[in-house]
Hints:
Number of helices: 0
Distance between the termini: 13 Å
Oligomer: single chain
Number of strands: 10
Order of helices and strands: EEEEEEEEEE
Strand content: 35-45%
Amino acid sequence: MGIIVFYEGNNGTQNIVQTVEDTPGQNFRPVKNDEIRSMKLYGVRPGCVITTYDSPDGSTGDDFCIVNVKRIAPEYTVDTFERSYEDEYVVVSFIRNNGLDGKISRIKIN
């Protein structure tokens, strides 16, 4: 079982806001609204999709970011939710409206 840790600062810094397992089918509001700016993945399974939303109900009409895990890593940091990129471990797709870091109000894990 992989672990996903959400952080208050960019680059996996500052306080941990919330820690969850990579179990599919999760859809929740973070324990602290509008705090999360980055996350670390610990052994998260390939095929896991983590979507973060500005909208509290998970609407795609506001900012959102989709992180597709391609390959398992002992530890991997997603420094920001405001940049689209791809490397050997993840594909990150950021859909901008007015900014997402520090404004995350809904998280889905599949």
